[in-house]
Amino acid sequence: MTQFFNQSDYKHKRQAARASLPKAEAMLWGALKGRKMLGCKFRRQFGVGAYQLDFYSSELKLGIELDGETHYVGEAQQRDRRRQQFIESLGIRVLRFLNDDVYENLDGVW
């Protein structure tokens, strides 16, 4: 199973994503880091196969995704569905929130 997680082939993509953290992700990361949620550790831009989760806790088997405008144009929704099905097939539950939810109600998202 571990062959699916943080594959070295995709390391540069994960590093680039961490380096250019969107505002909503930075806000939620501030609320998650340091075991602030249920005492569980979360990681940013965690690799699952060819995909990456914005946030992931192995203790909870929980992934958190923040969706901006690009997730609702063209074929993005179909890609997101396929991606989520793959991730969930590995026993990981995925919660999705809109960036606007984080901006307007961070406490509610947390």
Protein architecture, described:
This protein has helices at 11-19, 23-32, 76-89, 99-109; strands spanning 43-48, 51-57, 62-67, 93-98. It is α+β, with helices and mostly antiparallel strands and 110 residues long. The protein is built from four helices and four strands. It has one domain (2-109): VSR Endonuclease (Endonuclease, Chain A). The chain has a four-stranded mixed sheet, with helices on both faces. The radius of gyration is 13 Å and the shape is globular.
Strand content: 15-25%
Radius of gyration: 13 Å
The unreliable regions are none
Largest sheet: 4 strands, mixed
State the CATH class: Alpha Beta
Distance between the termini: 29 Å
Report the helical percentage. Answer: 40-55%
- Integer tally of domains: 1
Structural class: alpha+beta
Q: CATH H-level name... which superfamily?
A: VSR Endonuclease
Q: Can you tell me the CATH topology? A: Endonuclease, Chain A
- What is the average of the pLDDT values? 87
Number of strands: 4
Q: What is the string of SSEs from the N terminus onward?
A: HHEEEHEH
Can you count the helices?
4
Any guess at the CATH architecture? 3-Layer(aba) Sandwich
Form type: globular
